[in-house]
Amino acid sequence: MKNFKVTGNYFYRQDTYPFTKTVTSENEDAAREKVYMLMGSNHKLKRGEMEITEVESIKSESKPVTKSKEEKPPEKVEEKTEEPVPEEPKEEAPVETPKAE
Fold this sequence. Notes:
This protein is α+β, with helices and mostly antiparallel strands. The protein has a domain at 2-21 and 29-58: Roll (Ubiquitin-like (UB roll)), CATH 3.10.20.10. The chain has 1 helix and 3 strands. β1 and β2 (15-25) form a beta hairpin.
């Protein structure tokens, strides 16, 4: 699998917007298809609304992950406890009692 940098433009509401996507794929054609798929699902674009101008193979910059023996545990974060807000006393409306006649 190789990494490819795919650049192009997409058209939306009479404007043109540039885009650049980096994808991992077998070859250039599969990289194009993957970008069409991603842009279509993320931005609801059709293939006719996109123009891919360049597909460039790039070197993968992945480094092997090595853990040091003196790895420190993550620092504890103190949680803030919120003080309860005192409730304001509610004013009671006067209750009218029916008069007996």
